[in-house]
Amino acid sequence: MELFNENNKLAAVIHKDHSLLPVINRLGIKLGFGDRTIRNICEEKMIDLNFFVETINVFHHEAYFPEKRLLDFPVSMVIDYLVKTHQYYIGFLIPENDRLIELFLSGNPEESAENDLVRKFYAKFKEEFVIHINFEERVMFPYILELNSVIENPLTRPNFRQKYPDYSISGFEKEHSAMDDKMDDLKNIIIRYLPPNYDQNWGNAFLSNLFLFEKDLKNHSRIEDHILLPKVKQLEKLLQSHE
Ligand SMILES: [Fe+2]
Ligand SMILES: [Fe+2]
Q: For residue 27, how far is its CA from the centre of ligand 2 (angstroms)?
């Protein structure tokens, strides 16, 4: 496995894997980086170099997971990355899917049972997705950030204990499988069961966007399950040991 490193030119990295574009955007980088290396760019933009390199490697190689090294990063940095990913989904990928699905279905001249079926499965995926994201942003991430700040500032411990008497992430953990299953159902309906009177180009465009979404989402879930949660459990243990 050939990993990216800080001496690679970022342009060469993008030529190798353009699906990293939204990932580098979330990490604070836009196109137009000329011939500069990852190190040059991170120094210029004050981005944590190791976090940048590990995140693009995790995204590029599914089998690569440097859990030990990623556990060293501040929890706020990981959450910031995850929230930016949610914003990318809500602000871009979902509206883009909404647009493409309508273009795709409008190729079928009459409203049909198949159109309704696709809309129904798409609505189910979206519903599950929005519930999941809202829960993380309104309940889980605030808990984690408060836990982190209580460790940095022990004076706030009584307030925290009052608010979260059993403080434990296991009560907040949400599985990613329900969301993944709904995405699979939707893709399967389109790939396996649609009759051929659809606009195939729009069908392909919609499916390509779904595959892109799925890849990004799986990577996002891996970071939550394998980086964020172990890190939170570490913090909870640390807090317990102070009591
Ligand atoms: Fe998330
Ligand atoms: Fe999640």
A: 18
